[in-house]
Amino acid sequence: MSVTLAVVQPRTYLGADEERNVDEAVRYIDAAARRGADLVLFPETYPGPWTAQRLYEPLDRLAAQAKASGVWVVASTIEPVPGKPGGFHIVLALLRPDGTLAGKYRRTCPVGPYIYLGGPFWDFDYTAGDELPVFETPLGTIGLLVCSEVYVPELSRILALKGAEIILIPAGRVVDFNENWLTLVRARAIENLAITATTMNLIGSEGMAMIASPERVLAQSTEEGLLVAELDLERVRALRSIAPKISGSGEFKTIPNIASFRRPALFAKHLAG
Fold it and tell me: Is the dihedral of CA 248, 254, 259, 262 positive or negative?
């Protein structure tokens, strides 16, 4: 099964021009569909809002364009936390090609306020969520994470154990350790035998969009615009199903069925208390 993923690395507007991001996101969905995309990924908090001072609803227009273009879309925003005045979740929303909402992931790690409250780009009382959903779709099973959650390998492993074949990890803005960040994105693909992808907002900096399979980097770009790659989910499923081995023949560029190396009882013993 082949899926075409389009990763969007946009030039992001902030401040009084922030709602222009919604117009740009709509345009990118249309452009991605014209290039054959089945699934479109945007960065963290894109198309916004980015602050509690400039709230607007971005998802309705994106859902309408997802329906018009017939594609799945992962977009990001913030949403108020019920019962916590001033509190906001960072949300990734998965939109279906019929314009309906398949579900949301609310960032879980780390706990707030992290870099958000009073930050130079974000400014709201970030509140961590507690759920790690996966989404069964005709494109495969999708898991979602946000930005530096790539540094918490347990999150990707949980998603993979719950069946995620595609793990999307859009970032906000990274400028001083992109190489290490991308190494971790690729590591999450290798150790979980999954497709992983990331992208970021371009805010006066070079980008770091990447799409990786368990065996290689499929596409990578530092430039503004669309990064498109074909995802071979049959290969992912095959690598997960056969016995672990080192082929020595070039048959595999990774170790198949690596999840079988796990010893949950051993882990529980050493983590007890």
Answer: positive
Contacts of 258 (CB under 8 A, 6+ apart): 190, 191, 192, 193, 244
Spatial distance between the Cα atoms of 2 and 235, rounded to a whole number of angstroms: 10
Give the pLDDT means over successive 10-residue stretches in the chain (273 positions): 95 96 98 98 98 96 98 98 95 98 98 88 95 98 97 97 98 85 97 98 91 98 97 97 80 89 92 74
Q: Which domains does the chain have, with CATH numbers?
A: 2-243 (3.60.110.10)
* Token pair for 167: 């793990």
d(C-alpha 45, C-alpha 155), whole Å:
20
CA dist., res. 98 & res. 70, Å (int): 7
The radius of gyration of the chain's CA atoms, rounded to the nearest angstrom, is 18
How far is 189 from 194, CA to CA, in rounded Å? 5
47 preceded by cis ω (within 30°)? yes
pLDDT tens sequence across 207-227: 999 999 999 999 999 999 999
Burial of 85 (0-12, 13-18, 19+ CB in 10 A): exposed
Q: In whole angstroms, what is the distance from residue 165 CA to residue 193 CA?
A: 8
